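Handout, section B. The chain below has 161 residues.
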Amino acid sequence: MSLKNILKLGDPRLHEVSVEVKQEEIPSLQGDIKIMHNALMEFRELYGAGRAVAAPQIGVFKRFIYFNVDEPIVLYNPVLKNLSKEKIIVWDDCLSFPGLLIKVERHKSLDIHFKDKDWNDQVWKLEGDLAELIQHEYDHLNGIVATQKAMDEKSFRLINP
């Protein structure tokens, strides 16, 4: 039951800003990555959604994201660049508040620069839902929860899992 490790909406720790990962810390983070993987898989099983989780969501205030769309990958020390002027509006969900959707505005495209597990530099050019997903997870690294980005007071919707 790794979902129990996910900090829930209202937990003040979700607003802490994370610090960069050092290369020598990677081996000590493997247990945390396993917890993140298991929590994401449990969330998918319960809710039919879930593609990524940020370290702060399990109370680890380091700058890394566990991303699992086509295959699992960890993004260490991500930095967003070339954020498009064009925006999209989406209903955002989160492991930290299952059953609640938040209408937010995000950049339609961006580049994400990060270190991979071998500490090599990587750059992904993302658009649409993957760009939105990365912005959501990146916000977690900066202590920002999607509820803080709601478009207005009517931008909240409960759904049944």
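Note. DSSP finds two helices and eight strands in the chain. Compare this with the example in section A.
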